[in-house]
Design a protein that fits this description.
Helix content: over 70%
Distance between the termini: 45 Å
Number of domains: 1
Strand order of the largest sheet: 1-2
Largest sheet: 2 strands, antiparallel
Order of helices and strands: HHEHHHHHHEHHH
């Protein structure tokens, strides 16, 4: 009931005073999120460098398997969220599988415009690291506006450096930054939701929710940058 009474403004612009249990829970959530991201990166490397996997997930059968897996694996992780190692294994499997199914997209992007994948990863990484860093140092008070400002600051710095080093069209980077900021809002919103969920009994549900947001941000940034190269097919 308490969570449902919170408005969008409360979750994105509010300040939350945490109990010791809440502070520990959100730090564990972001730790598991980090492990999911590492598993996804490993899956992406394998998926993009293995011809059989690229061919399979580039087909309509592979697309069906991907959709089933992306829904089934989080459900398995939720079912085992109180089972310690089993829940963690299911969470990592979800991240690894998500990385594998991105293999064909990453492979094509690297062949057409190699800097695109690096840029998309950097933008997504800035979002993840800035919010994670803020959560890790926030102590017993989580201020959503400070989290947003921290992320936006590092996003602007990162976009400026990318523009200087890689020479992408400024408009594409501005749009990518806008998506990145939207991703920050999603992460802050989800973090506030996790903090104020009285039924939270495991960090796994929150990690799944946050990972899904990062996954979508990476895809969106990648497609936008590809569009500016003239090849988003």
């Amino acid at each position: 009931m308490y969570r449902n009474q919170l408005t969008f403004e409360d979750k994105v612009f509010g300040q939350h005073h945490l109990s010791s249990a809440q502070a520990a829970m959100i730090k564990k959530t972001y730790l598991l999120l980090g492990l999911s991201v590492l598993a996804a990166m490993a899956g992406a490397v394998i998926g993009s460098s293995t011809p059989a996997l690229r061919a399979f997930f580039g087909s309509w059968v592979g697309w069906i398997v991907a959709m089933v897996g992306l829904n089934a694996l989080p459900a398995v992780a939720m079912a085992f969220r109180r089972q310690g190692a089993l829940g963690l294994a299911a969470l990592l499997a979800d991240g690894f599988f998500a990385g594998i199914i991105l293999g064909p997209i990453i492979y094509m992007a690297e062949r057409i415009a190699p800097d695109v994948v690096t840029t998309a990863m950097i933008i997504t990484g800035i979002i993840f690291l800035s919010v994670t860093g803020y959560v890790a140092t926030s102590g017993r008070t989580f201020s959503a506006p400070r989290g947003l400002m921290t992320g936006i600051f590092f996003a602007i710095v990162g976009i400026t450096l990318l523009n200087l080093m890689l020479g992408f069209p400024l408009l594409s980077l501005i749009i990518s930054a806008a998506i990145g900021i939207f991703g920050l809002v999603v992460l802050i919103y989800a973090t506030s939701d996790v903090l104020n969920n009285p039924e939270a009994d495991s960090p796994i549900p929150g990690a799944l929710m946050l990972f899904a947001g990062l996954f979508q941000v990476f895809q969106a940034v990648l497609h936008i940058l590809m569009a500016f190269t003239g090849r988003d097919d």
